[in-house]
Model the fold of this input.
Amino acid sequence: MPSRGRRGKQPVNNTTIVATQYFSLGQISIKSGEKLGPVTVAYETYGTLNAARSNAILILHAFTGDAHAAFYHAGDTKPGWWDGMIGPGKAFDTDKYFLICSNVLGSCKGTTGPDSIDPLTEKPFGLAFPVITIEDMVDVQKALVDHLGISKLLCCAGGSMGGMQAITWAVKYPQCAHSVIIIAACHRHTAQQIAFHEVGRQAVMADPAWNNGDYYGQAVPARGLSVARMIGHITYMSWVSMESKFGRKLLDKQKLGYDLSKDFEVQSYLEYRGQSFVERFDANSYIYLTKAMDYFDLAEGRKISEVFKGVTADFLVISFTSDWLYPSSQSREMVRALQAEDADVSYVEIHSDYGHDAFLVELDDQARAVAHYLSKVGRERAGLI
Amino acid sequence: MIRLDYEIIADIIEPGSRVLDLGCGDGELLSMLKEKKNCRATGIEISPRQIIRCMERGVSVAQGNIDSDLDVYEDKRFDYVILNESLQQVLNIEKVLADSLRVGKKVIVGIPNFCNLRARLQIFFMGQVPVTKSLPYKWYNTPNVRFLSLKDFRDFCVEKNVRIEKAWYLREGCRVAFMTGLFADSGIFVLRKG
Done:
């Protein structure tokens, strides 16, 4: 996801260099019933695990994110995707907490996904990659957390698809996290969310270069993936943020062209976003991860409060006023179901004009809420001072 | 210094109680109840700014609307539901109070007295809607939407078959025992279903 505007105001971490690490686990069973493996997990850690192993926080990234959440990779000029939230003295304070962020299963940023080599064919999986779910991502994260010797996390925290993973942690592994932070997310994908994803997938699949997912080593389905990202990008912004950023500003023109060339700045912006996305993301991962989100429905036909019956974690839920992709009404639904089941839950709807992207860029109130919340749960639940 | 109304409310509530504070503001009362009375205390508040202040104090508060958000709780979930200086700011008083009496074994209500002596004098002699220390708002910027006297509230409780177990009357940080309808700026009532 892009970084913009507000993020520049945050103190940037000094140029601490971090590197991605890799952990390999054998074959795993996934929700569809299939087996997959061996699975490699790309992850990064920041800060120091205390002697009691009680200060670990798992950061869960969104759709196209990666394990590189903060600080710098050697030679990079841009820090990780949540650098404004993670670092010494920041909301996720690396002086106090040990942070782990891993790339999700099915992605293309180091963890096993459709662009990884299938051991059976010694070629990239492509569509031979099994359809995975948010639960499968969480199972892989659980294996990583076990591998790091942590039996109970202080917190699982994530925005958007990361929030879906966080709430899944609370339900699937209730004994393994003291607290859960769910930002701009939901407990089930709705028709509108599925619909946007479907349009994105159709755009990719309509590109002849997609070739049924078999394009590795050849031209990638750039046009299709770029259109998919353009649609996605519109859903990440808001009416206000688009209007204030672009309005009807013309693109290097004094007047309308009355032809089919680009007239408006917003057109070239989307084009640019689409193209740069093609350079950093795999089209098949796009399909598999959107599918995983579309399958996401914690309740699976039950009442959502029933699913929350066994939860023990303390919850913080955050939504943003202008987020129409994962609207506050969905966060409230989750909060109310948690309240009905007597969970400890804090909820705040933060004012922002940045739409769904707000969780990446609207950091002031979000950071304050998270910092205070972590102090509370650290003190009350994990005995941290 | 601790506000007298907080002190009185904290005195009423037994240690270890389960408490829901409706319109909990910056969470000062909740944090007092949590720390001094070891209560499991939570709140509902409409302002996100106030919720972040609640979080600074380490109390769990959910943003919401007390007009509509009590439906999720089962009967008698809380030992006490608190409506301190918030009831006069809701439109549907009857529903909020009925919901509170349903989800709480007892309800503590703190209300301002819009008919205290100073207010009455201002209306009578100046012909203006009163602005006093305890009622500092002008008619055009007041957050209050319901204007009532202590007597109005007691009558309302009789009409709705709500029992007032105990009442305190306050003025400028002191208790008032005499001609409370005139001299008290506010009242605190402990209620239960009649």
Notes: The radius of gyration of chain B is 16 Å.
